[in-house]
Every structure is written in structure tokens, then in C-alpha cells.
Amino acid sequence: MKVLFFSAQSYDREYFTRANQAAPLELRFLEAPLNVDNTALIKDEQVICVFVNDHVTAEIISILKEKNVKLIALRSAGFNNVDLAAAATAGIKVVRVPAYSPHAVAEHALTLLTALNRKIYKSYNRVRDNNFTLSGLEGIDLFGKTVGIIGTGNIGTVFCKIMLGIGCKVIAHDVYINEELVLAGVAYKSLDEVLSESDIVSLHCPLMPATKHLINKNSIVSMKKGVILINTSRGGLIDTVAVIDALKNGHIGALGIDVYEQEEHLFFQNFSDTIVQDDVLSRLTTFPNVLITAHQGFFTKEALMQISNITLNNIRSYVDDGILLNEVK
Ligand code: NAI
């Protein structure tokens, strides 16, 4: 069976080629993202493999149907980039990697939080410049602070445990209660309560119509002044313009993001020789209390190996036995 990869980076080739050795499928890797024009690059592949910023719209799905594509294999956990209703109507199945290494993303959320709090990016540069002063670098003890976690699925659960380990008071909001976390000491509360009581808020819920711009002008007002906001989930959970206003007036004390609402035009690409046209992102990068990484939360050796193995297993299972593992409906 032939599989065509869109948005493939060098590490995708490396890890998927390694994972493919056991029971080889015919893999073809394209650096190009999936868009209407690039559907012309599909030859006779019945499976396409896409990543988070490949937007599989209804228009693209109708072209995939014409091209006899049977399966869209997401090599990601999030699936907000696929028009599932259109895929169902076209009879094209969608599978994903529901969990690979929740530790990778949860540990990255911690990295953003601690780097921001202790201003590691500033001290790194100061020391390299032989400036060994400390003024402006003071942080807070995380111990004893209240951390609010929105979404306690795979990643949120690991993050809750990490923060409990540091000695934080952990409160959470989810549509489901994880009893294991309750026993560990996590208190579930309403979204408003979590936002208004937390010194630190970390987002770990999926992007859906119900969660789009969960952090907006109104919800920011209910948050504590000086709150540290961390988002490693999806950019659309945050109304970035409202967050910029709150950073300007000091209501948000610091912001750490691994995802950005308009990231599909930028992330995973190198624009260092050009002028980036995104004024919102450019404004964000001017704040001394904002730390942005380009969707690297998943990017550990363990996670990449898991993603490759599970994605190929999803494909083989469908191709060989007609069984849909990890289907998204
Ligand atoms: P998951 O599906 O295990 O957990 C999501 C949790 O959010 C579930 O417990 C669900 O009940 C909850 N939830 C749903 N609607 C909610 C709402 N309205 N309010 C509060 N909670 C709600 O997903 P997982 O694996 O923990 O991933 C979380 C998100 O992290 C993904 O949706 C994805 O967007 C993002 N992600 C980011 C990565 C990165 O590299 N930065 C890598 C992998 C995932």
C-alpha cells in the first residue's frame, strides 16, 4: 500500500523510515503542505498522512474522494484541522495518534513555565555578554502557588502530577472528572472558579467550537492580576489580541505559548531571511515576559518513535484487516 506524507520534515522521514522496516509500506514524503493546489501531487496513493497544520477542508476532501483516497492518517493527537463531517460524507476514514508521549508535552509546559518565571532566556543572554547582574530576574516560588489546569486528559493529567510534585495547589476544570487525580489531591471546579483562583493557568483541552477563544477579553478580567498563562494545546484556545491587551496593561503577568492561532502560515518553516507579515505574532515577540516556541511540545525522541509506530500501525491495520484503530469520527 502506498502512503503519501504531506508537510514531511527530515525527522519525519527518519523516524517513519525506521518504523517502516518491520512490515514495509510504500512511503513517499513531500515537504509541501496539503492544500488544494498540492492535491495534484497525489498519484495513486490511497492513504495520505498529514500533520497539524495541513487543513483538510471539505473542498480538499472532495478532491481526495475523486482521487480514490480511502484513509487520512493524522500523525498527531489533535484533529481540529480535518472537516470530519465532510470526510464521513465522502466515506473517507480518519485515524490519529490519540496518545504518544503525554510526558513530552506536559514537560514542555513546565519548561515554558519555569523558563518564564526564572527568566532563563534573559540570564542566558546576560551571562554570555559577561553581565552577571540579577536585577530584573527575580521569579516566584512555584511551591504553594495555585495552578489551574483546563483539560485533564492524557497531557493535563501528567501536568497535574508534575505540579503536585512541585508542591502546588492544583485545581482543574474538565467535562469529565478523573478520580485518580481527585485522590491525588486535585480539586475540580467550574471554569470560572479555576480562572479566578489560579496564579498559573495551563491549557490542555482540545480546540473545538466550545473551547475556541476560551481565554478572551471577558475571561481574562476574571483572572488574577499577574497570572502566568501557558498554552501548549492549540492556538485557537486564546484570543491573541485580547491577550496582547492584557499583557500591555499588566493583567497577564507572563505568557508561554507553544501554539499560535495563525501558526499554519509560519511554524515548521524558516523565515529568517524574510519579513514576517504577521503583526500579531510580531507584537507578541516584543514583550519581555512572553516566551514562544514553535509547536515543539511533542518533539522528543520517544514521542517521534511512538507517533511513527502508531501511525503506521493504524494504516497497516486498516489496509490489511479493514480494522480502524484510533478512528476519529
Ligand atoms: P485528551 O483527549 O487526552 O484530553 C483532552 C481533555 O480535554 C479531555 O479530558 C477532555 O474531556 C477535556 N475537555 C474537552 N472539552 C473540554 C472543555 N470544554 N473544557 C475543559 N476540558 C475539556 O488530549 P491530550 O492528549 O491530553 O491533548 C490535549 C491537547 O494537547 C490536544 O487536543 C492537542 O490540541 C494538544 N497537543 C499539543 C501538542 C504540542 O506539540 N504542543 C502535542 C499533542 C497534543
UniProtKB/TrEMBL annotation:
Residues 3-329 form the D-isomer specific 2-hydroxyacid dehydrogenase catalytic domain. GO terms for molecular function: NAD binding; oxidoreductase activity, acting on the CH-OH group of donors, NAD or NADP as acceptor. InterPro entries: D-isomer_2_OHA_DH_cat_dom, D-isomer_DH_CS, D-isomer_DH_CS1, D-isomer_DH_NAD-bd, D-LDH-like, NAD(P)-bd_dom_sf. Pfam families: 2-Hacid_dh, 2-Hacid_dh_C. Keywords: NAD, Oxidoreductase. The keyword RNA-binding does not apply. Gene3D superfamilies: NAD(P)-binding Rossmann-like Domain. It comes from the Bacteria. Residues 111-297 form the D-isomer specific 2-hydroxyacid dehydrogenase NAD-binding domain. Belongs to the D-isomer specific 2-hydroxyacid dehydrogenase family. This is 2-hydroxyacid dehydrogenase. It comes from Chitinophaga silvatica. The lineage of its organism: Bacteria, Pseudomonadati, Bacteroidota, Chitinophagia, Chitinophagales.
